[in-house]
Amino acid sequence: MDFATLIPSFGGVLFTIGAFVIALSIIVAVHEYGHYIVGRWSGIHAEVFSLGFGPVLWSRKDRRGTRWQVAALPFGGYVRFMGDSDAASGKDEEAISTLSPEERRHTMHGAPLWARTLTVLAGPFFNFLLAIVLFSGLALSVGVAQNPPSVKKIYPLPQSGITVQPGDTLLQIEGRDIPEGKGLSDLVDTLPDKPLLDYTVRRGDQTLTVKGPPMVPARVAQVQIKSAARDAGIKRGDVIESIDGKKIIRFNDMIDIVEASNGKPIHLQVWRNGKVIPITLAPRRRDTPTPDGGFRTRWLMGIQSSLFFEPASRRAGPLEAARIGVEQTYGVIKLSLSGLYHMIAGQISSCNISGPLGIAQSSGEMASEGASSFISFIALLSAAVGLLNLFPIPMLDGGHLAFFGWEAVAGKPPSDRVMRILMSIGLVLVLSLMVFGLTNDLFCR
C-alpha cells in the first residue's frame, strides 16, 4: 500500500479535505433541511438543526424555538425533533411522558403516520432535488454542444498540417455527414486510420474542405484517480503516440492493445508540449458499465478521451435543462443500483465501493478541475447519498420507512425493545459499511 497515492498531486491534503468538507456540508445541509421543513409543515417541531457533530462552534435559536448550530466535526448532521432521544430519532420515553396529548402531536413519535413518513422521505427527496437542480443549472450556465458541432478551440496535438480553425462548423468527415449522439461514435469507428482526414466545414459564408486530425485522437482528456496512468505520471493533454512500438493515431487504437496486455507492463511514447516522454505502466482491471445496464471487466490504463477540439455550446432552455437534470440524476441512480446488484452477485469487484478517503480524493480532484466539474460531482454524490439513505437499514431513512410500513400493515409500530435491537443492528451495519469502504480506499488499486 502506498499512502502517497491517497494524496492528490494537484494541491495537497488541505485542499482535498476542504473540497470534501464543502461538498459533504452542502449535501448534508440540504438533506437535513428536507427533514426539517417538511416536518415543520407537518406539525412536527424541530428542537435542533445541526450541521456537524461534537462540540458546538456556533448556535442560535430562532423564533420557532429551533436551535441552529454548527459543530466541530463536519462529517454529517442531524435534525433532532421534540421527543427524540438522539440524532437517530430514538424515542425519549421520559420526555414524552411529561407531554400533553396536544404536545405529543408535535413530536416525531406522536405525529400521524403520514406526517412521519413525509418527514423522513423528505431527506432523500431533497438530495435528488439538489442533484436535478445542479445538473440543470450546469446545462443552463455551461450550455449544451451545438449540432452540427462547431469548433471553439483546438487542443494542442503533434500533427502538422491541421487547417481546421476555431469558428468552423463541421459538416462532413471524409465525405460523410456528421450525425448526433451514438451515431457520431459509430462513424468515428469506421473512418480511415490516418493522421489527417478531410473535413467539410462551414466557415462564415463559405463551405470548405480542410484537414484535421481524427475526431477522437489519442489525447488524454482526463486521468482517473487510483489508476495506472495517474501513478505512472500521465497528465491531461498528453497524446499517446505509440504503445510497445505500435503507432497510435486514434484513441480507440489503444483499446485492443491494452486489453491484450492482461495487466503486464506496456511501454508508451507520450507527446507532451512538444517533447516525447517514455512511460511504462501496467494496466489494471476495472469494471465499466455497458449500454445494456450491465458491467464488463476490462484491463484499463485509466484515461478518458475527448474530441480534438472544445465544442462551442448553445444556451439550453429551462425545460431542456430540467429534462437534462432529471435524466442525469436518474442515470446516477440507475448505475448505482446496477453496480450494487452486480457486486452482490459477485460479477464485479467490491472495490467499486469507495469510503471517506476515496470520496475525499474525488472531491479534491473535481474541485481542481474547475467549478463545473466540482458542481457536477456534488450533484452526483447528492443523488448517491439520497439513494443510500433509502436502503431499508435501521439508522437510515429507509429503515424508518420500513418501520412505518410495518406500522401501516400491523396497526401499531414495533415495540420499543425491538426498535432498540434493530437500531443497534443498523448501527453495526452502517459502521461496517464505513470500515469496508475505508479498507477499499487503503488497499484496492
Give your account of this protein's structure:
- The structure is a single chain.
- The protein is of the alpha+beta class and 445 residues long.
- Among the domains are: 3-44 and 111-142 and 381-443, no CATH class; 145-212, Pdz3 Domain, CATH 2.30.42.10; 222-311, PDZ domain (Pdz3 Domain).
- It has helices at 13-41, 93-97, 101-104, 113-142, 181-190, 228-232, 253-260, 318-344, 356-368, 371-389, 397-410, 416-443; strands at 46-61, 67-81, 144-145, 151-154, 169-173, 176-177, 197-203, 206-212, 222-223, 239-243, 246-247, 266-272, 275-281, 284-289, 295-300, 303-304, 309-311, 313-314.
- α1 packs across α10, α4 (113-142) runs antiparallel to α10 (371-389) and α9 (356-368) runs antiparallel to α10 (371-389).
- It is elongated, with a radius of gyration of 26 Å.
- It starts with 12 loop residues before the first helix and ends with a helix.
List descriptors:
single chain, 445 residues, alpha+beta, Pdz3 Domain, four-stranded antiparallel beta sheet, 18 strands, 22% strand, elongated, disordered N terminus
Any chance you could write out the topology, listing elements then pairs?
Blueprint: H1 13-41, E1 46-61, E2 67-81, H2 93-97, H3 101-104, H4 113-142, E3 144-145, E4 151-154, E5 169-173, E6 176-177, H5 181-190, E7 197-203, E8 206-212, E9 222-223, H6 228-232, E10 239-243, E11 246-247, H7 253-260, E12 266-272, E13 275-281, E14 284-289, E15 295-300, E16 303-304, E17 309-311, E18 313-314, H8 318-344, H9 356-368, H10 371-389, H11 397-410, H12 416-443
Antiparallel strand pairs: 1-2, 3-18, 4-17, 5-6, 5-7, 7-8, 9-16, 10-11, 10-12, 12-13, 14-15
Helix pairs in contact: 1-4, 1-9, 1-10, 4-8, 4-10, 4-11, 8-10, 9-10
